[in-house]
Amino acid sequence: MDEKIGIDQRHPAKYWHRLDDGRIQCDLCPRDCILQEGQRGLCFVRGRADDQLVLTTYGRSSGFCIDPIEKKPLNHFYPGSSVFSFGTAGCNLACKFCQNWDISKSREMDSLMDEATPRAIAQAARRSGCKSVAFTYNDPVVFLEYALDTADACHDRGLKTVAVTAGYMHDAPRREFFAKMDAANIDLKAFTDDFYHKLTGAHLRPVLDTLAYVHHETNCWLEITTLLIPGYNDSDAEIAQLATWVAQELGFDVPLHFSAFHPEWKMQNVLPTPHATLSKARRIALDAGLHYVYTGNVHDMEGDTTFCPSCEQALIVRDWYEICRYDLTSQGACPKCGAAIAGHFSKYTQPTGYQRPPALIKPQAWHAAR
Fold first, then answer.
1. Would the pTM count as exceeding 0.90?
2. Could you read off the pLDDT of 342-352 as tens digits, one per residue?
3. Residue 68 in domain
4. Is 340 inside a domain boundary?
5. Any bridge partners for residue 64, and if so which?
6. Neighbours of 367 (CB within 10 A)
């Protein structure tokens, strides 16, 4: 990329090194973009300026919104609570089916109208009554420095942090990033490298490495989402392989969400995912031994509901993102058989529901918190 990086868009970035020929290489993700002065990487938001790597979207957001935590989706991380959500622009994957393409593929930095320091975001989240702050809409991996500073500000104010990410990153940034996340939903977009290569421009192995690392070596709560695209990653055999890998490598208690594809971006000629495909995928994953399997992007109360894996009692009944019944104890146990339910739970209060009010951070909040 040869677009000039503005002087007001330069925040020092981590994870890069200089090559013998004078170029610099970004070491954030497996793309390993090599840059001359003034060039940007594939993500478009990390680039070379003044002979160093910089992040061009620090402190600039595509917008803020208050969401139900189930929208991330996270069904086992303080169900019914509200989360203060925001993203920036850019992405280090090139998914042809991107559902947020207007944000993640944006190269119009002027479209990032909301400005806020990490401290201002944390303050706004507290004022809004949110329990957590989510880095979402585009992949927080590409705005790592902004996300890390915001996570620190959130923790200072007693807020939890949530990452919604594809998990495509190198080991060192992976360790720093997830050390500051309390929960994450990671996309496992398919279970073949062919799919990753052709439809995302990436590879499967780094994502599997991220999933294993987060689950086994951090305290970050993990849930997984797979968007099922008809004819591409929805065969019974691939779904069974994916679910079996999750069961064997991560365990039976990691929630798995199968989400419906809707024609977007460069795949508008592909039909939406049939409801029956999601229901079958859920059954395959349950048969593989997984305890918590959900469906998303469709109206499916059974697929939204959390069941006790021991006695099969319906414990959290959902209709889309609205909780209709909540029968878990405050310690996260089934009241019928006493079995512990995997996740993070607290005393249940009034749920957020389906409403998604926008959240505004006034310009004065930016200046006061600098």
1. yes
2. 999 998 876 55
3. yes
4. no
5. 86, 359
6. 11
